[in-house]
């Protein structure tokens, strides 16, 4: 079966809603503008839907080098190059990340919306965070994503899961960057090197999932699913798996509709 890219999604601000795009510039650290910003608490600890499920309701949009954020009836805008030049050293789990504060105005707007004092920061540059990949015994450049620059998932994997659930789920529960046609559930786990558009990717490992996949990305209602069902057939060690983590080994453009060429086929 020929495999095709059906959806591309970037998540400019970590743990906020994603933006469907028709094409994306694949960099070693992740798609351009993907998870280059994130929110910190007063102790400069990064915040996600694990702590604040309502982050799913903040909808970013990038147009003409400006980012707009929509939340309920409120809007906020800033230039994607905006920075206060205040360095904020922080971590994403155990990885050091060099970030810069965006502005006091952005801090205030997000703090007002969340009723909690927070700060919006951006990654200083694409080499500002390295993640140690113990499976390959190497360091990789990565954005502010949890662990790897890219997440790829197949349609048949979701369809297979939904056949086991009383209420089917949307793919946005899993927050992938690339969604692809597939013929066998979770076949993407076994893929190796992939050429997509002018970029080349390397499959690192299946993605272990956290409780964010139990959060409805439209309502923020939290359920036990799909973790409970996935635990019955997708458990590996202490994790349940869905989708696969990837790195980019040759930068280039990827488009919706691109054919995926596998080196092992």
Q: Helical element count?
A: 3
Instruction: Tell me the radius of gyration.
Output: 18 Å
The proportion of residues forming helix, as a percent range, comes to: under 10%
The largest sheet is: 7 strands, mixed, barrel
Helix/strand class: mainly beta
Q: Helix and strand succession?
A: EEEEEEEEEEHEEEEHEEEHEEEE
Name the overall outline: globular
What's the pLDDT, averaged over the residues?
A: 97
Write out the strand line-up for the largest beta sheet, numbering strands in chain order: 1-15-14-19-17-16-21
SS strand fraction? 35-45%
CATH architecture: Beta Barrel
Give structural attributes.
265 residues; mainly beta; M1 Pyruvate Kinase, Domain 3; 7-stranded mixed β-barrel; 4-stranded antiparallel sheet; 3 helices; 21 strands; 41% strand; globular
Detail the topology: elements first, then pairings:
Layout: E1 3-10, E2 19-21, E3 23-27, E4 30-31, E5 37-40, E6 59-63, E7 66-71, E8 74-79, E9 87-92, E10 95-101, H1 104-114, E11 119-123, E12 130-133, E13 138-141, E14 150-154, H2 155-162, E15 178-180, E16 193-196, E17 199-208, H3 227-233, E18 235-236, E19 239-250, E20 252-255, E21 259-262
Q: What is the gist of this entry?
A:
With 265 residues, the protein is mainly beta. It is 10% helix and 41% strand.
